[in-house]
Structures are given as C-alpha cells and as structure tokens.
Write a structure and sequence with these properties.
With 115 residues, the chain is mostly beta strands. It has strands at 2-6, 9-11, 17-24, 33-38, 45-50, 58-59, 67-72, 77-82, 91-99, 102-105, 109-113. It has no helices and eleven strands. The strands form two sheets. Strands 2, 4, 5, 6, 9, 10 and 11 form a seven-stranded mixed β-sheet that branches. Strand 5 and strand 6 (58-59) form a beta hairpin. It starts with a strand and ends with a strand.
Length: 115
C-alpha cells in the first residue's frame, strides 16, 4: 500500500486548497479513505473520511461546512477540498486507509495558513 499526498502550501486566511492522495498497491475502489492532520506539538487528529463508493462521509466538527472529501476510483485518488482556511488549520495533512487489518498513512503534505 502506498499513499502519496500533495497539494499543500502556504495560503492566506480565508483561502482554499485542494489536497490529493494518490493511492497504489491495493484495490482502491473497495476501501474507505480518510484524511488526518497533525499540528506541531499536537496529536494526530481525524479530519474526514469517505466510504468506498463515495457515500458515508464524515467530517470533523471544526471543519464542517468548509472541508469536503471526495474520491475518484478510476484515478485511484482521494481529495480534500479545503475552503475558508483559518490559522488553526495549519498542520501536516496525511491520507489514510485501512487494508487487511492494518492502517496505512502516506507521507504528509504541509498546509500553512498565515497572513
């Protein structure tokens, strides 16, 4: 299982970013995907998840209405559209999946929200 996150960067408060997670090494279309984030000095926290079919999405309360998770099974890619970014969203964002009773994280992509 390999997960490659991309799309992070420096953005001003109120701005938007779209993160992508390219997956390989497993049958992407049959597994749920998730995004986590980890800010400096804080524990890793769940951000959002999506079922294998694109249904059953869940979102952290603090990002509800601002972040949207989606996936394209044909492209083996999951996305996290982030709008209305605030400084508290600054973190390394990691994609995740749970395959064969094991949790996998890709390398993260840094998101920095600052003016």
């Amino acid at each position: 299982v390999q997960l490659q996150a991309s799309g992070g960067g420096l953005v001003q408060p109120g701005g938007s970013l779209r993160l992508s997670c390219a997956a390989s090494g497993f049958t992407f279309s049959t597994y749920a995907m998730a995004w986590f984030r980890q800010a400096p000095g804080k524990e890793r926290e769940f951000v959002s998840s999506i079922g294998w079919s694109g249904a059953n999405t869940y979102v952290l309360d603090s990002v509800k209405g601002r972040f949207t998770i989606s996936r394209d099974n044909a492209k083996y890619t999951a996305y996290l559209q982030m709008n209305g970014l605030v400084p508290e969203d600054t973190a390394v964002y990691l994609c995740n999946t749970y395959v064969q009773f094991e949790s996998f994280y890709g390398q993260g992509t840094q998101v920095t929200v600052s003016s």
